[in-house]
Amino acid sequence: MTTNGISGYFDVDVKSEFDPNEKVKNSDSINDMDSSVKPFLYTRRWIILTIFILISILNSLHLNLYSEIPNVMVSVYHPGDSNDKSSQYNMINWLSIVHLVSNIVFVIPVILLNDCLGFRCCCLLGASLGTIGSWIKYSSIKPVVYEVLLFGQIVCSVSQTFISICLIRLSGVWFGRNEVATTISVGVLSSKIGHLVSFVMVPYLISKYNSHEMNIYYFDIIYLTVSALLSLLSILSLILVRDYPEKCPSFAQIEIRNNQKTLLSINYREKFVQSWVSMSKIWSKQSYVFVAVSHAFLIGSMYSITYLLNQILYANYFQENSTKIGIIELFLIISSILGFISSGLLIDFTKSFKILTVISYVITFISTVAFTTTINLDIWFPFCTIFFLGFFSGFYLPASYEYAIERTYPVSESTSCGFLIFISSITGIAMTYTYAFIILNFGVFYGNCFLCVLQLIGMILTSLISTEYKRERVNLDKRSHHEIDNRLKMTPKKLRN
């Protein structure tokens, strides 16, 4: 087995765990391939990507709107029993984590809908739900009703689940071989950009120092602006989005399209059954299980640290530096955005999926250990460790998505990555509550040790995964066949004889 670039350093040449019938039959597909069929890239792909990046940013802004202003939310919406402050703050916290619950509940239905109804239908559903949820939230402010706000937040969360799956699917269906990872990373970082905008903008506009009427006014302006923009983007998506381009963007997609020609005539029930069988099969593959578990442990750790960072630093160490703690949180968001961008560009340039995944996991683990051992020192130590933690965990996310896609090809990208989102959301909630419990009862050091142990397990699992880049092999083999075929056509007839 051959590998590309420096990725072979960590690669182990072992017998594939995939059944022979599931393998991509390179020799047959290459010989049967029409030499006139070549990948073609459409400008429309950038327009569609831009539309859904903007939808993702606006949805993410909505979903992260309340995490930095819980005291203002309690004073404006008055959720639950006014005599039970703990219950009120807990109800506000649920506004921030409801999107994780949405991922758990709706990822599998979204994958099935994508396989049965098509990419365009899922895109339109995601855009429409985001618009509807936004207008519901707008109606919650006049008069102020917490239950209406929560319902709107749930609808926006379901929309974001659709959009996350669609952005991943978009990368494979519309973008070329050397653009897929960058497209995925841009799609992932769009949600972080929305988080960044809300982190910077919301505390500046809405604060406990404003009057009650002023805070309601700013909420009204934010809701109305976002709702209007989402409505416009939904209309654009209805006009511009297509299921797939007329010509495939890569040889891997040509192979999939050829294999799926027989599926066009089957009914929705048969498509549903085939999609369900496909989802079941990937969990029988040891390599994918290893990717999923290691992904869940690292991303779950980052959920835990992100949600509890302010509490950890302020309550336990740096009560006199509340402003600097806010800057540390900002560092975490910005560094993860830089990690997303760097990951996509490097993966597309090197195609070294495993080595980049392993390196990012190792450095994230080292950064977590450094954060654990230096947190009680000067505040500049958390600045440095959090930056590295954010950057390399952000770097890891697109790399793990691409690694999973390579391991499960020709299974849909939305299926492979959708289950990573599913399992990381489950572990994210479980690890956050466990982390908070350990911190409360035993201290921050032991809570961080808990995260380090899980990351160590994930790092070992990642290093044990053997390499078989199924999608990349198809792209390289078919490209080589095209080059040979073109040279033969250019060779004078006498020489060929």
TrEMBL record:
InterPro entries: FLVCR1-2_SLC49-like, MFS, MFS_trans_sf. Its main location: membrane. The chain crosses the membrane at residues 46-66, 91-112, 117-136, 148-168, 180-206, 221-241, 288-305, 325-346, 353-373, 379-397, 418-438, 444-465. One of its GO terms (molecular function) is heme transmembrane transporter activity. It holds the Pfam family MFS_1. It is found in: Membrane. Gene3D superfamilies: MFS general substrate transporter like domains (1.20.1250.20). GO terms for biological process: heme export. It is a multi-pass membrane protein. Keywords: Membrane, Receptor, Transmembrane, Transmembrane helix. GO terms for cellular component: membrane. Signal peptide: none annotated. This is Feline leukemia virus subgroup C receptor-related 1.
